[in-house]
Specification:
Layout: E1 7-8, E2 18-19, H1 25-39, H2 48-58, H3 68-81, H4 102-115, E3 126-128, E4 134-136, H5 153-166, H6 176-183, E5 195-196, E6 199-203, H7 205-216, E7 226-231, E8 235-240, E9 245-249, E10 254-258, H8 261-267, E11 270-275, E12 281-286, E13 291-295, E14 300-305, E15 313-318, E16 326-333, E17 337-345, E18 351-360, E19 368-371, H9 386-393, E20 396-400, E21 404-409, E22 415-421, E23 436-445, E24 453-463, E25 466-472, E26 478-480, E27 486-487, E28 492-499, E29 502-507, E30 511-519, E31 527-536, E32 545-547, E33 561-563, E34 568-571, E35 574-578, E36 583-588, H10 591-600, H11 604-619, H12 626-636, H13 653-672, H14 683-707, H15 710-723, H16 727-732, H17 734-739, H18 748-760, H19 764-771, H20 781-790, H21 794-805, H22 809-825, H23 829-847, H24 862-872, H25 879-885, H26 898-906, H27 908-919, H28 928-945, H29 955-971, H30 979-990, H31 999-1006, H32 1017-1030, H33 1033-1046, H34 1049-1065, H35 1069-1078
Antiparallel strand pairs: 1-2, 3-4, 5-6, 6-36, 7-8, 8-9, 9-10, 11-12, 12-13, 13-14, 15-16, 16-17, 17-18, 19-20, 20-21, 21-22, 23-24, 24-25, 25-26, 25-27, 28-29, 29-30, 30-31, 32-33, 34-35, 35-36
Length: 1079
């Protein structure tokens, strides 16, 4: 790593910033070497410049940003300077501009740039001060850095572009909002309203009072103790141990008492009860095994099934009704017999029953059964899709033995769709507990992909302490849900789906936990289960039934277990929990209710964090985040509307807008209560206001990015910051989101403000590197190009033109115009070099098949390369250039070939080397002749007249031009040259002052018998003494041979003798012997 590439900044914000570029290390070493010898190798008194450097480098000792390799390099260099180690001189890397291969040329440029580019991990983009704030190093050095004197201009340009791309390492963005989201934890305590942890616990007072009263009344006068509960949209039914069904409306008034205590003496208690979701029927299962179907509103018995089961009913449920004139009931008894009873209304309003045995009990008891409820509808639609209707009408149910669970389709014919064995790890655990099932509808990523989601049947199973999920994608069957497995602290006693994203889980120790499904990926069936709230029900005396367990596989007896299938029910996303003297409901508070509670308590960050969690779980799965980008791009292209997550028809409009409204309310309130600057002398007050708005900006940006509302971010939010003159706080925080490619589009007004902001900070390169990571196809090109050209952000300009418009010539023209402007002013040499070398590097990349500025391989069509070459070789400025440069038609300041001329004046050797790629004729066919004509016109006019720009053309540049032409003549790329140019090239090589190692070899090739250009006798006569003086005996031999072939007979003798002499004076013996053959 080059030490002069490292920028040192003191940790104290008030201290002076030191740039090591101010120190020429090589000069320090040279100038102090004599002083070292005088003081002795072990002298402890270093020279003054060494002392400066030592103090400067030692200031980096406490810099945490520097990696180990950087610290080691600095320490080693310091020891060398202080005389502790010997100094080893290294040769400077020199760019080989004589390379002819295209890849060789570009690789050399990049190699030199890389040699001077800091390593990955060095503090290029930003540094962290001791107070924790981050500083932008780029803003300290305009245009990244001025070119080093010892570096070639082209290599420095490549180095600048590499830095522009390498300074993208951004640490994780951590905003106050993210910290709050991470720190939020479930709450188990409840206030006097029963709210806590997002739960609302409510005791149904009137019903509970009635149940408590029943428990205290003498048995003969009491309806009995509660045994089971079922919930209908119109009423609540509670079965009792005296065989009665108490029907309450939702105002908690008793409306019906179904059954009689006389019958209960023979049938026993109601062991299970259920209500039809699509009618007003109730079915009760009794300890006697009888099943009774009731019309609740009329209070009459519709049908009694006396012989359906020989054992007590354990659980009974209505299946999804297929026939509007009938109902299907699934019943399970304690011996494991599972029946399907289809009740159909006849013409005489009587019900006929067809009972079909699904399981005969031979496989053992069935501790759990769950029926898939009707499809709940999606996005406000009352009709289910075709594939959903098929699944629902199939009458899906899940049953479980003590070994496996089964998904069974009960209609139109009975079949087992899937077998779900018990987890292998628990197969030998005798204390595993009983399986509990809940079949429901959950929102999952669509198997079709694209980021959308759909409601699909999901079976939740609790077994022991483990919860597992099994989902159907309605296309390829059932799959275990990735991430849908969670260990609970205690054995699971019951579970129910409380909504499409929430599961209520009751543990054996009385803890009720609500788990939320978070979508964990972009594929079907990938979720995570997160505990959102916990409630302690250990003080409630819950109604349960006893499950008698037989011996285990080893013949050992097992403890009986409690079942809560009939006291743990759900309706309308509300969990009903039946106790012996009370009925409680627990529900997860809606997003709006929880947000209102937090806002009411002034906990705005918690409310915003809650909104983001809600969005991620409920709204975002419905529409990909990219919808916003497409909407913004459409608006920029002139469309009337704007697509966003909240307005897209594929998402929940109300929920999305509610999430956005919370941010607007927060923004308005935060601005209203922002600290106010009290005038001069109040720096601390000003700092407080700045910190306040930066915190606000971080929250707003993070929030809008998460909910995909970039229109809101760059609309109402940005306007609010502008209105209070605090846009700089907003703009400062955009950069990391852009570099991480989270934000890939900026509206024109925000783009203009961002550029102006960084221009004031002296850090325009920050804007440029941001633009290199943005989506340009949705930009307003006219506005973007105007802004970028105005601020001379040419790398971003190239990105916009080449990626957005596929135009490679226009950015080259604009860069060359910028160089002309700087050249014309005569006072902006640094700007001329910056933009000129950038244009030259861009041309090099295009000609060598690399994308600018990334250097990634690309392939440009010959037509594109020819268009770029035609622009470069244009004899006059284009009308567009004249207009932009404000040059009249008769203004001849830039002369002929103005675009080529400005590059040659900047760096003739580098320009000619790049043009060698054109002279090869492999990339741009038929352009070499035009290029030579242009170069000849420029250089030969200079040689002949010495007027205009080329009056003081450096001699070394002229020599460089002639050498490049000579090489391409020797390769056969140039076969038709103007005679004056041929003469100039040959005479230049013949002088011996060209400094070219193979000058004689070039002359031999150019003077050979097969050369296409004619050599006039006068030219031959003039070259002979020059090559002889230079010691080029073989080139002289070629000239004498030419004279022998073209001279009259009387003059050949002298030429022959001179040719023989060339053989004799050659230093190679083998070549001397060839003289005899020649003779």
């Amino acid at each position: 790593m080059d030490v002069d590439d490292l920028l040192v900044s003191d940790s104290d914000s008030d201290s002076e910033e030191i740039n090591l570029d101010d120190f020429d290390l090589e000069e320090i070493l040279r100038n102090e070497s004599s002083d070292d010898e005088a003081r002795g190798p072990r002298s402890s008194s270093p020279g003054p410049r060494k002392q400066i450097l030592a103090e400067t480098l030692s200031g980096r000792a406490n810099k945490p940003d520097l990696d180990d390799s950087t610290d080691e390099s600095l320490a080693t260099l310091l020891r060398e300077i202080m005389g502790e180690e010997g100094i080893e001189e290294e040769e400077d890397e020199v760019l080989d501009f004589e390379a002819t291969d295209a890849e060789h040329l570009v690789n050399d440029i990049l190699a030199e740039a890389e040699a001077r580019t800091p390593e990955e991990g060095s503090p290029i983009g930003s540094e962290e001060r001791s107070d924790g704030t981050r500083i932008n190093v780029v803003s300290m050095v305009p245009e990244l850095e001025q070119a080093k004197p010892n570096s070639s201009g082209l290599a420095c340009a490549a180095r600048r572009e590499q830095r522009l791309l390498k300074m993208v390492g951004v640490s994780e963005i951590l905003t106050p909002l993210q910290e709050r989201r991470r720190s939020r934890a479930p709450v188990s305590s409840f206030d006097e309203l029963g709210r806590g942890g997002g739960l609302l616990l409510e005791r149904l007072k009137s019903i509970s009072h009635q149940l408590g009263k029943n428990a205290t009344v003498a048995f003969q006068y009491s309806p009995g103790l509660p045994t089971a509960v079922a919930i209908h949209s119109k009423f609540i039914a509670i079965g009792t141990d005296r065989g009665l069904a108490l029907v309450f409306d939702h105002f908690q008034e008793v409306r019906q008492i179904l059954g009689s205590t006389t019958e209960s003496e023979s049938d026993g208690p109601i062991s299970s009860i259920d209500v039809s979701p699509s009618s007003e029927m109730l079915v009760s299962g009794l300890m006697s095994g009888r099943i009774v179907l009731w019309d609740v509103m009329k209070g009459v018995v519709l049908r009694v099934l006396d012989d359906a089961h020989p054992a007590p009913i354990a659980v009974i449920r209505f299946a999804h009704d297929v026939d509007p004139n009938g109902s299907t009931v699934i019943s399970v008894d304690t011996q494991g017999c599972v029946n399907k009873s289809t009740l159909t209304k006849s013409l005489w309003k009587a019900y006929t029953v067809v009972t079909e045995c699904l399981l005969d009990g031979a496989a053992g008891p069935v501790p759990s059964m769950s029926v898939l409820p009707p499809w709940p509808g999606d996005r406000g639609s009352s009709a289910a899709p075709a594939e959903v209707s098929f699944q629902s009408s199939a009458g899906l149910l899940a049953i479980s033995s003590e070994r496996s669970a089964f998904i069974v389709s009960s209609a139109p014919t009975v079949r087992v769709d899937f077998k779900w064995p018990r987890a292998r790890r628990a197969a030998t655990n005798s204390d595993l507990g009983l399986p509990v099932l809940s079949f429901g509808w959950a929102r999952m990523r669509s198997s079709a992909g694209g980021g959308s989601s759909a409601m699909v049947p999901v079976l939740a199973r609790g077994w022991g302490t483990t919860i597992e999920l099994l989902a159907s994608d309605l296309a390829s069957g059932y799959r275990s849900v990735l991430g849908g497995e969670r260990e609970m602290p205690s054995t699971i006693a019951a579970l129910e789906w409380v909504g499409p994203q929430v599961i209520g889980v009751l543990e054996s120790n009385g803890q009720l936990r609500f788990l939320r499904l978070d979508q964990g990926g972009q594929v079907f069936g990938q979720v995570s289960l997160v505990v959102v709230s916990t409630l302690d029900l250990s003080g409630f005396d819950l109604v349960s039934s006893t499950y008698v367990r037989g011996p285990d596989t080893r013949g050992e007896s097992q403890n009986d277990s409690k079942l809560f299938l009939n006291s743990f029910r759900v309706n309308d996303e509300k969990l009903y929990i039946l106790g012996k003297s009370s009925l409680q409901t627990a529900r997860v508070l809606s997003f709006g209710e929880r947000a209102a509670d937090l806002i009411g308590d002034g906990e705005w960050l918690d409310a915003l964090a809650l909104a983001l969690d809600h969005f991620a779980a409920s709204v975002k799965p419905l529409a990909p985040l990219e919808a916003t980008l497409e909407g913004l791009a459409g608006q920029a292209a002139g469309e009337a509307g704007m697509t966003d997550v909240a307005r897209d028809p594929a998402c929940n409009q109300a929920a999305g807008q509610e999430v956005a409204d919370i941010l607007i309310r927060y923004l308005d309130l935060a601005i209203e209560h922002a600290p106010v600057n009290a005038g001069t002398g109040t720096a601390s007050r000003s700092d407080l206001r700045t910190s306040h708005f930066k915190m606000m900006a971080g929250v707003c940006i993070e929030y809008c990015v998460e909910i995909g509302r970039l229109d809101l971010l760059f609309g109402d939010v940005f306007s609010s910051f502008v209105a209070v003159n605090e846009a700089r706080a907003f703009l400062d925080l955009l950069e990391p989101y852009i570099l991480r490619e989270v934000i890939r589009y900026l509206p024109p007004e925000v783009m203009a403000a961002l550029i102006e902001h960084y221009q004031e900070k002296g850090a325009l390169p920050c804007v440029e590197r941001c633009l290199l990571h943005m989506e340009v196809k949705g930009l307003d090109f006219n506005s973007a190009v105007t802004i970028l050209r105005k601020h001379k952000l040419y790398s971003a300009l190239v990105h916009v033109y080449t990626i957005g418009l596929g135009d490679f010539s226009a950015p080259l023209e604009l860069m060359l115009e910028g160089a002309m402007e700087a050249q014309r002013s005569g006072q902006r040499k640094g700007e001329l070099e910056t933009v000129g070398y950038k244009a030259l590097l861009y041309l090099t990349y295009c000609l060598t098949g690399k994308r600018f500025p990334s250097g990634e391989p690309t392939k440009l069509s010959p037509a594109v390369l020819k268009e770029m070459t035609a622009l470069l070789l244009a004899e006059a400025l284009s009308p567009g250039s004249r207009k932009r440069l404000k040059i009249d038609a008769d203004d001849a300041f830039h002369g002929t070939y103005p675009y080529l001329r400005v590059l040659l004046k900047l760096d003739c050797p580098a320009t000619l080397e790049v043009l060698s790629l054109v002279l090869d004729g492999k990339l741009v066919v038929d352009s070499s002749r035009v290029l030579v004509q242009a170069l000849s016109s420029l250089f030969m006019a200079s040689c002949a007249s010495g007027d205009g720009d080329f009056q003081d053309w450096p001699e070394e540049s002229m020599a460089e031009f002639k050498e490049v032409v000579a090489r391409h003549m020797a390769r056969g790329n140039l076969r038709q040259l103007p005679p004056p140019l041929t003469k100039e090239v040959l005479e230049h090589l013949a002088t011996g002052r060209a400094g070219i190692k193979d000058a004689q070899g070039l002359l031999e090739t150019l003077l050979g018998p097969h050369q296409p250009w004619g050599l006039e006798p006068a030219l031959v006569a003039g070259l002979v003494p020059k090559v002889t003086e230079a010691g080029y005996s073989r080139a002289a031999l070629a000239l004498h041979r030419h004279a022998l072939r073209n001279s009259p007979p009387e003059a050949r003798a002298a030429s022959f003798e001179a040719a023989i002499q060339c053989f004799l004076v050659d230093s190679e013996p083998s070549f001397q012997r060839r003289g005899f053959d020649f003779a």
